[in-house]
Amino acid sequence: IAITALGKACAKESKADLEFCEGIIRELIASEKLHEHPPKKQDGPPLFATTPPPPPLHVLETAKFKKASAKLIADAKKIFESSGISLPDLLDFVQQRLQPSPLESNETAGADGVAFTVPSSLPGLAPDRSDMNPAKLETLIMEKLESVTGMRTSDLRMSLPPEYQGSDFDEAVIRLAEAERVIVCQDADPISFSEEEQAKFVRYRSAIYTNITKRS
Q1: DSSP strand E in 2-149: where?
Q2: Phi and psi at residue 162, in whole multiples of 5°?
Q3: Its pTM surpasses 0.70
Q4: CA gyration radius for the chain?
């Protein structure tokens, strides 16, 4: 009920002055014995009741998103029940797909466990070694960057011993970027390079990173 209507009803029933009744009502509101509720209409007066208002709707439960949210939940429930995966795994899968990889948006942190796409069989790349030491490769990369302000990833690759020029090199650069030890720059037009040129740059999924700089 609106405060004006509530005051009039109080005055009518108690035979008291309207101003007195409205003062009592404001004291009840101040002591949280009366609670303000949203108006029924957008431009209507606020309403009051003895019980607190319900919590506001989640944005996905509002009219704009309610139908799409219901479909999303129904589809997710079907997948959850039929796939046999755990709820945390399902939520993690959805989160990974909804949030773009930071490296793909030119940041320096990325997701673990992503397959790297540099094939070691392309011209100019040596095959990977099963006994390769990742820490040693990262150290070599950082040593190469120590005395320069930046360089092309292809030049950095080819400056390393042949056994470190395969896809292990790409993985090492991405790890260093994730650890915020280097900054890698993505090329906006990778198709401008030949297949052989692309093979010598750092590749991550469909992105090509042509330059690398040591973080200060």
Answers
A1: 35-37, 47-49
A2: -50, -35
A3: no
A4: 32
